[in-house]
Design a protein that fits this description.
Length: 433
């Protein structure tokens, strides 16, 4: 099934624990000074979100502050969406919300403003006027739910820099009514290449993140600085197309996947399997807002078969045709719960034009919480089948970006990657537990 709003799948409303705290540094400037490097801790947070069809209960969050005087907020980092938003419904004060009434620098966007007519892929319909002539924004999600609010501006303070007049959605409705589920973040930071995204508004030429697999936070860096002294990066170009195609998301970070290897063995697949077709379906997007990785059917099936082939002697397949984890992960294994570690398994490498990401060990298998068969726990392969969800794209999720330095070089239209230990890199930049 080809559905246009598949891209919104990856920007689910996952609201998490307001865990971190915003930086309280002296505020330096009102405009971004390109020589300055802004560093924020990047945390992995859990949230059970069983209601959504496309659940990922782990997200990346950053803490910052918004408004005058500054209010601490925690936002999900999402390279797959455009408009940033904050939860602004103050009748829900049991949860972290941004209180616009308490900010002197807050200002709702009037619907007569040109900002209100900017087209973004996030709006399901063009923004409209509400009864107060304010710009009304509706964000749509994959499960057909939506969130509504007012397009607004306020000052965002990131690591001591003041970005005044930042456009975001101040959302009133659309949050789950289950209090356990909602809750824990104040909003989402849209980081794609659309004109309203955070990076576009700030005019950052480059940003980087490093997701730590450990309890130590990773880091998010904004700025033009050249970090090649840190680690040599391998670059892969961002794919851009000039003509709009129905299934091609032009504001996503699209890279060219060229192959997949299991240990050293490349899957025998023709190149076109990885290339977008004439409708634009089949692009490969790097998405920090999605947990796991999704491959289109032919690539998924080839990977599944090869991984099975190479693990027949070490892993016991969980044979239950009715069990498909999160609707897309149909390759699962039974692991004795008394075993202290997983057996040695082959790595999986994603080969991009000019760069590769290798996933190994524990990162390849995800223990499904709460699932036991006899004395075995259930572990699923962390690559899913896009076809099972009706997604027309390859999505590289954040789980497979752990311990990879990811640089989004907008100026040169490329993504740089390198294997590193992100907890150590975080400490180098002064980010602590
Ligand atoms: C915001 O975070 C800072 C830094 O951690 C903390 O000192 C301050 O108390 C927090 N403010 C509020 C209102 O929670
Ligand atoms: C995901 O949610 C489940 C509950 O649904 C929870 O047990 C688990 O700890 C969460 N996090 C991860 C990483 O699975
Ligand atoms: C950020 O800049 C805006 C606009 O200049 C100003 O009104 C606000 O007070 C500043 N915020 C802080 C915390 O300095
Ligand atoms: C705020 O949330 C409450 C509770 O979910 C809801 O009843 C109310 O309509 C929301 N307010 C607005 C302005 O949407
Ligand atoms: C970054 O710095 C390195 C070494 O200082 C230099 O070789 C490289 O050309 C620089 N790259 C960019 C994009 O400025
Ligand atoms: C794995 O693949 C090889 C070569 O393709 C084949 O000879 C072998 O029988 C396969 N093993 C299993 C267990 O499927
Ligand atoms: C785990 O339990 C099984 C029987 O349930 C036993 O055969 C196996 O030796 C045990 N393994 C460990 C590491 O204790
Ligand atoms: C599960 O493990 C317990 C304790 O080791 C053992 O008594 C029991 O027989 C095992 N059950 C199965 C179904 O293997």
């Amino acid at each position: 099934m080809k559905i246009r709003w598949i891209f919104f799948f990856f920007t689910l409303l996952l609201l998490l624990l307001l865990f971190g705290s915003a930086e309280q540094m002296p505020v330096h400037s009102h405009r971004f000074n390109s020589s300055r490097l802004l560093v924020l801790p990047l945390k992995i947070q859990d949230i059970p979100s069983k209601q959504l069809p496309f659940t990922h209960n782990v997200t990346l969050t950053v803490s910052l502050s918004v408004g005058t005087p500054p209010q601490n907020v925690s936002m999900v980092l999402d390279t797959g969406s455009e408009l940033s938003w904050l939860q602004c419904n103050t009748t829900r004060m049991s949860q972290p919300v941004f209180q616009p009434a308490r900010s002197m620098s807050y200002s709702p966007v009037a619907c007569s403003s040109p900002t209100c007519t900017i087209r973004t892929q996030d709006f399901s319909i063009p923004a409209s006027c509400d009864s107060k002539n304010l710009c009304h924004a509706i964000l749509s999600y994959a499960d057909a739910s939506s969130s509504e609010g007012t397009l607004s501006t306020d000052s965002f303070i990131i690591a001591g820099s003041n970005f005044s007049g930042t456009i975001f959605g101040c959302m009133d409705s659309g949050f789950s009514s289950n209090p356990d589920e909602d809750s824990k973040t104040t909003g989402l930071m849209g980081m794609n290449r659309g004109s309203l995204s955070f990076v576009s508004q700030m005019e950052f030429k480059r940003f980087s993140y490093c997701i730590s697999g450990s309890d130590f936070p990773g880091i998010l860096l904004f700025g033009d600085s050249n970090f090649t002294w840190l680690v040599p990066l391998n670059y892969t170009p961002l794919i851009q197309i000039s003509t709009p195609l129905p299934y091609f998301n032009r504001v996503a970070y699209t890279v060219q996947l060229e192959g997949i290897k299991v240990s050293d063995k490349p899957l025998q697949l023709p190149k076109y399997v990885f290339e977008p077709d004439h409708t634009g379906a089949g692009q490969t997007m790097v998405d920090s807002g999605t947990q796991f990785t999704f491959l289109l059917g032919p690539a998924y099936t080839a990977l599944r078969n090869e991984f099975l082939n190479q693990t027949t002697n070490v892993l016991r397949v969980f044979e239950d045709p009715n069990f498909v984890f999160q609707g897309a992960f149909d390759l699962c294994f039974r692991v004795p719960s008394n075993s202290t570690s997983l057996p040695q398994i082959p790595s999986v490498s994603l080969l991009f034009h000019g760069a590769e990401i290798t996933v190994s060990g524990q990162q390849l298998l995800y223990r499904v919480p709460g699932e036991m068969r006899d004395n075995d726990s259930i572990h699923c392969f962390t690559f899913g089948n896009s076809d099972l969800l009706g997604i027309e794209a390859y999505i590289i999720g954040h789980h497979h970006q752990q311990n990879v330095w990811m640089e989004f070089d907008l100026e040169n239209s490329r993504i740089g990657v390198a294997s590193v230990r992100c907890d150590e890199e975080g400490q180098r930049f002064g980010v602590h537990h």
